Amino acid sequence: MRCPFCGARDTRVIDSRELGGGESIRRRRECVVCGRRFTTYERVEPGGLMVIKRDGRREEFDSRKLRDKLRLALTKRPVSQEEVDRIVATVERELLATGKIEVPSTLIGEIVLRELKQLDEVAYIRFASVYRRFADLEDLRREMEALGAARTRSEHEAPSS
């Protein structure tokens, strides 16, 4: 691995951690030449997975694009990068589990919404407002009411200790 600071090819791994339930590996590296440290990530690339957009266009699945959209929804929210990586890994795993080469973008959106709903309600609303194309405040209000109703149901269904 080439050092991003000095360009030297001689680096060593000083720490490795699994992320997303083993879906990827985070490695801390140190350059033997300049001594600076940096982080790299390793993960399996879902080869050839195509996303069918709402307008019929097709484009290759890009986990970086998904990660960027999640970071946008999670701006200034108390959610770790590990949680973002977990959601991305969950989406990739579920898409690959379909066994299809082409998947609709709506499937990706629904998986992300399901994960965000459990993780952070503000991020869920932010993502839903774009994904579901809220036209006005009434759409936002309806989504928030549905979210509140779902939370109330789950609180009543939770087993008491």
Describe the structure.
With 161 residues, this protein is an alpha+beta fold. It is 47% helix and 20% strand. It has five helices and six strands; from the N terminus they run βββββααβααα. The strands form two sheets. Strands 1-2-3 form a three-stranded antiparallel sheet. The chain has a three-stranded mixed sheet with strand order 5-4-6. The mean pLDDT is 88.
Distance separating the two termini: 52 Å
Number of distinct helices: 5
Radius of gyration, whole Å: 19 Å
Fraction of helical residues = 40-55%
Tally of individual domains: 2
Structural class: alpha+beta
Strand order of the largest sheet: 1-2-3
One letter per element, helices H and strands E, the order comes to EEEEEHHEHHH
Number of strands: 6
Give the overall shape.
globular
Mean pLDDT: 88
Share of residues in strands: 15-25%
Low-confidence stretches: none
Largest sheet: 3 strands, antiparallel
Output the keywords.
about 160 residues; alpha+beta; 2 domains; three-stranded antiparallel β-sheet; about 20% strand; globular
Set down the secondary structure blueprint.
Elements: E1 11-19, E2 24-31, E3 37-43, E4 50-52, E5 58-60, H1 63-73, H2 81-97, E6 102-104, H3 105-119, H4 121-131, H5 137-157
Parallel strand pairs: 4-6
Antiparallel strand pairs: 1-2, 2-3, 4-5
Helix pairs in contact: 1-2, 1-4, 2-3, 3-4, 4-5
